[in-house]
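A reminder from the course coordinator: this example appears on the midterm review sheet, so study it carefully.

Given structure:
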């Protein structure tokens, strides 16, 4: 049920290990479906604790087994803490990886990397592509954060009330003197110009 809801019909798992040797049937999936699985996996810190481990020594009775993580982005890409590398005959060199930077997390899925120089060259190409995808993701997220900050700043400025300037008390002038001299005519006059003409006529 979990697989059906998460992957719809584009993913079909038939083996516990994902190997594609033999006649099949083989597992089939897409980069998008694997990214969805990675999103769910990244919600579990206990899983990231294992995927971010670069090496681990497994104790045995006679001799410990020392295992090294093949995700070369763990020590080289800032914030990388997973997830899984792999190689199969059908999918070639593949990787699902993730990293955090500030409040953001990005996930990159690379499938089908091959090289005429062999498996090691294909793995280097896979690592390079995954790193470029995550860098591009962080760059776009940073641009979005900057745009949101500018928009929020503009909104705050637009909502800020305008501060009224100091009220200046006008000094007594000609029109004030003129108004005092002609109080008896104010009911008849419509403007200062009419008032001046009336006084001159008188």
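Designed residues:
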């Amino acid at each position: 049920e979990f697989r059906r809801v998460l992957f719809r019909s584009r993913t079909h798992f038939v083996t516990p290990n994902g190997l594609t040797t033999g006649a099949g049937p083989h597992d089939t999936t897409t980069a998008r479906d694997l990214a969805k699985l990675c999103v769910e996996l990244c919600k579990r810190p206990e899983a990231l604790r294992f995927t971010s481990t670069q090496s681990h020594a497994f104790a045995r009775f006679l001799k410990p087994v020392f295992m090294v993580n093949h995700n070369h982005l763990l020590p080289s890409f800032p914030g990388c803490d997973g997830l899984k590398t792999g190689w199969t005959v059908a999918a070639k060199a593949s990787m699902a990886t993730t990293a955090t930077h500030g409040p953001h997390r990005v996930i990159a899925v690379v499938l089908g990397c091959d090289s005429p120089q062999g498996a090691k060259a294909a793995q280097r190409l896979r690592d390079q592509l995954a790193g470029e995808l995550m860098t591009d993701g962080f760059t776009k997220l940073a641009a979005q954060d900057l745009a949101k900050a500018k928009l929020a700043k503009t909104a705050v400025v637009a909502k800020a009330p305008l501060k009224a300037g100091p009220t200046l008390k006008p000094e007594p002038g000609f029109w004030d003197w003129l108004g005092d001299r002609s109080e008896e005519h104010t009911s008849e006059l419509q403007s200062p110009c009419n008032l001046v003409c009336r006084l001159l006529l008188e």
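The first helix runs from residue 2 to 7. The two ends are 104 Å apart (CA to CA).
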